[in-house]
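Here comes my example:
=====
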Amino acid sequence: MNREKNNTFLAIFRPPGLGDLQIILSNIHHISKEVGRPLTVLAQRTTGAKTVFKHDPHINEVLDLEKKDFFNIINKIKSRKFAQCYIYSSSIRLWLIAKLAGIPKIYHYPFFSKKGKNFYKTAQEFTEGILQKKTNSASKIYWDKESIEKAKKYYDIKDGVNIVCGVAASGPTKIYPTENYIKLFQEINSRFPSKFFLFGGKKDEALIEKIMSSVPNCVSLSKLDLEKIIPIIAACKFYIGNDSGPLHISANLGLKCLGVFVDSPPSAYANWHSSIRVVLPVGENLESTGHNTRGKDSVSYSELLEKSIELIS
């Protein structure tokens, strides 16, 4: 691997989600440390990369990866004269972009290799193969301490039980029933006076309003952008909720997390970080729970409550 200090390096991420970027994040840090300089990242806007990397010393620049912008992307990359590129995808399109941009050394996943792959392990093994050493898949989000302190003051976040609640998700099959979350938060609050920060988008506002009308001390994050949300999460101690972007952001901000996995594989989306504990549908395990489990109505509420209390205690 060429490590000359005057080289510039590009990392390309294809996955579109907030959580996807978080799971792959450590790989970019490992490569940056190895080459001794920050990298440029090419990623979709939906990953929140420009915000996530705003204070990151390992990232020099973030470029937008748009699906219909093939030649513009090539021109943007070509003008920067990158020496090496790391493509976290088996996409031939992304390889062509790097090749036509004139990047002499391109590392990429094997073509046509996506099916059946473990998301975080594939990325980790790819990075380890390049660096020729073992890496840790857990990572961190670098953030401005002053903005975290401002969030604490503005939202009155004091020492105590402050919980980020991932009550929404990317699809309906991944969302544990709202009624059960209401019952859970009410029970937690009766034992430990708590503040609940409800993470969701504008499309989730009806769901969030339903919780806020039934549970005291709730704050909705649905109208805030990611740059304002990150310091709020960083000021909290716990995450409880669905497998979704805020779970993975919370893990990389150092929170203790409990993820409810009902229709996605925890072997790929939980095992990457030691701070993430899981609750699964009854009768399922880490390997059997996957994208077609459809288990949102099969999770034991008593198990979720027990693990939530254990997380907080």
